[in-house]
Design brief:
The protein is built from 16 helices and 17 strands. The chain is an alpha/beta fold. Strand 12 (about 265-270) and strand 13 (about 270-275) form a beta hairpin.
Length: about 375
């Protein structure tokens, strides 16, 4: 069964200096052409009666950059193809300042029940340096507008370890964020990605990030502040009140199947992962011609499935459930990874709790090193088959 659907809308009013997602400046004509291509891709791949899925996520880019006509056509398409009425979580991403009352009511009328806002930082100067269009006051206005129109499930994204950001500045920004008492927060350390403005500045030595020890301190402050506000950490970068964990993102971390539609979107279907064409003209041409604008297909065998089960599952604070692993693969975690697990437990990076293997506080800081311990050779699997 395919549990979820991700739909990518690649348009933005402005391109942020750190973003490497598939994105283009919004242009009404280009967006209309893209919507036609996207419609053909979805119609080609989803047939028959409305498909049941647990979650729908419209991401970007900035989906709310679409005008009312385009947004309505997208929501109608989704409503026609998927059983929205029985969907547990239906999320759209947007930026503060991008919502007006008509758009909010339109989203509500089509069953959208969760909003993810790209806030990033509560500091106007830093927002400008990130290439963001909105101001802090727009965050207050947008959250108020959403809540007045019946949206209570609101998440905000924050970024820390920004250029020249001090620990005190981050703490102030974080405290302002939690003062909204929202049910969900996603908080990431800044990554310098190729083909971004920040990458070019970094290469020239003109991007001054905080030292690593300051970044670690920010992460510790993040965890303790959330804990102090009864917002539980359930994944390396994600925090939620009980019952408000992102069901869509849990699809990824639980290594479950999902559709991916749109330019640059990735999907995971039984036996394969797919990646769509990123450049807009090429995506539009292929999606309009045959509805299959796929750039890459990665065959997923047992080796890849097991590795991904570990990499993705360990991102969750609950970790890897040993019985679930055995039920899914027919052999135990220990029979394949006993040595790695024992070594990581001794280092203090991994712990066993109530039948689960999970990262410790120290392990959260060294996630990539932990994950590397679970890479396999084909010969490893012969021992447990």
């Amino acid at each position: 069964m395919v549990n979820s659907v991700y739909i990518h809308i690649p348009f933005c009013q402005q391109i942020c200096h750190y973003c490497d997602f598939t994105k283009f400046f919004y242009n009404e004509r280009l967006a209309t052409e893209y919507m036609e291509a996207l419609t053909n891709e979805i119609n080609t791949n989803i047939h028959g009666k409305k498909q049941k899925v647990k979650t729908i996520f419209i991401g970007g880019g900035t989906p709310t950059a679409l005008n009312m006509k385009q947004l309505r056509s997208l929501l109608e398409l989704i409503d026609h193809k998927f059983d929205v009425a029985n969907c547990e979580e239906y999320t759209i991403e947007g930026n503060p300042g991008d919502f007006e009352v008509e758009k909010v009511r339109l989203l509500k009328s089509y069953g959208v029940n969760r909003i993810s806002l790209g806030v990033q930082v509560f500091d106007d100067q830093m927002l400008e340096e990130l290439g963001r269009l909105h101001k802090v006051k727009d965050v207050y206005h947008t959250i108020n507008l959403l809540q007045r129109n019946g949206f209570s499930n609101i998440s905000i994204d924050l970024i820390y370890a920004l250029p020249n950001q001090t620990v005190d500045q981050f703490q102030k920004s974080l405290e302002e964020a939690v003062s909204f008492d929202l049910p969900h927060y996603s908080t990431y350390a800044l990554q310098i990605e190729p083909k971004t403005v920040f990458y070019q500045r970094h290469k020239k030595g003109k991007l001054h990030r905080p030292p690593q020890e300051a970044e670690v301190q920010m992460y510790e402050i993040l965890k303790s502040t959330m804990r102090g506000n009864n917002i539980n950490q359930y994944e390396i970068s994600n925090f939620a009140k009980n019952g408000f964990e992102s069901k869509h993102n849990l699809t990824y971390w639980n290594n479950e199947h999902y559709y991916g539609f749109g330019a640059g979107a990735h999907g995971y279907l039984p036996g394969r992962r797919t990646g769509n064409i990123r450049p807009l003209p090429a995506y539009n041409k292929k999606a309009m011609s045959d509805g299959k604008p796929i750039l890459s297909i990665e065959e997923i065998g047992l080796k890849e499935m097991v590795e991904e089960e570990m990499f993705l599952g360990l991102r969750k604070l609950s970790g890897i459930n040993q019985q679930h692993f055995r039920d899914k693969f027919g052999f135990s975690c220990d029979s394949l990874y006993g040595g790695a697990i024992s070594s990581l437990v001794k280092k203090g990076w991994l712990a066993e709790q109530q039948g689960n293997y999970c990262l410790t506080d120290d392990g959260l800081l060294f996630g990539n090193e932990v994950f590397a311990e679970f890479l396999l050779e084909e010969e490893d699997l012969k021992l447990v088959r």
